[in-house]
Every structure is written in structure tokens, then in C-alpha cells.
Amino acid sequence: MEKAAVRQQALANLATLSDAQRGWLMQAVVAQVTALPAWQSAKTVALTLSQDDEIPTQLLIQTAMLQGKRVVLPRVQPGRQMTFIVVTPATTYERHRFGMLEPVGDEIVVPTEIDFVVVPGLAFSEAGDRIGFGGGYYDRWLPQTTARTVALALPENVYPQPSWPLEPTDQQVDQVLIFKNEE
Asked: Per-residue pLDDT tens for 135-174?
């Protein structure tokens, strides 16, 4: 199966989530992620501000701040690169041309200072292979960090083995957390 077809199916699966399911997912994400030893020992966590077509992360961001962790969110840079900016409850955001919200700020954290990363994606193999949104940003960024990497997925977006062609530049995540689609 081509990556574009896998992306399309994964987006369709995510689009079926009701508001009640999204609410449940927000709680489940916080419960499972914060129970991980790597999260508990992490001082700096890299997260993403989820969009409508992703598993919700807003409550995880708030929880990380309440736990006293330094929270960093990505900001796209020229050349299909990205940096991570420290965010606080007072951070303002601007909409990127691709539609996602990015933090406004100048406190950039280098990849080696990050302890834990929730890596966005649409589909995953059980071994941690991933299909992102197609820009390759995380595939370029992940080799720069030694942080523990975790992905969030619905069971229908996780495959026993990759059903798509793997590229030499594709980066795996250390762990895929699977959230059963419940209400």
C-alpha cells in the first residue's frame, strides 16, 4: 500500500471520532503517557499542539506544565526543518500556512536537552515505523535527539508490519501507545 493511501485511511479513522470519544482520549492520553517511567523522569518534554485530525494533546500539555516540566512545542523553519520553543500558559500562538498553531517565542531548546518526545503521526507499525503527515520534519529532526520517543495511535492505525514502503530516512519511535476507540 502506498503511503498516501495509508495516510488517507488513517485520517478517515480519526475523523470518525465523536466529541465524547475525543474527551475520553484526552483523559486516556494523560493517564498512559504520565504513567511511563521515561515521562516521570523527564525534565523537558516535546509535545505537539494537536489539530482536529489528531489524537488530542491539549490536556497532556497542561498536565506537563502542572507537573513542573519544561514543555516545548515545534515551530517550522525554512528548509523543512523545525525547532522547539519553550511554552508557558502565557505563550501566544500564530497559525502557520499549513494550518497548525505554532508558539511565538525565542527560547529555543536544542534537541539534546529534550528527554521525552510525543511524535505525531497517522499510522504506525507495532515496531515503531511511522507515517507522518508527509513533510518529513520529524524524520529530519529525530536523529538529533536521544530522547525517549512515543507515538499515540488508534488500534485501526497500527499495523503488525509496515504495509507501506519504508525509506532510508524514515525514523522509528521507541513505543506506540494504542488507545482503544471508546466512548
From this structure: 899 999 999 999 999 999 999 999 999 888 899 999 999 9
Q: pTM value?
A: 0.93
**Per-residue pLDDT tens over the stretch 98-117:** 788 999 999 999 999 999 99
**Domain boundaries of the chain, sorted by first residue:** 3-178
Q: Which amino acid is at 42?
A: A
CB 111 within 8 A of CB 135: no
**Is residue 67 within 8 Å of residue 34, measured between CB atoms?**
yes
CATH 3.40.50.10420 fits 3-178, yes or no: yes
| DSSP assignments along 33-83, one per residue | HHTSHHHHH-SEEE-----TTS---HHHHHHHHHTTPEEEEEEEETTTEEE
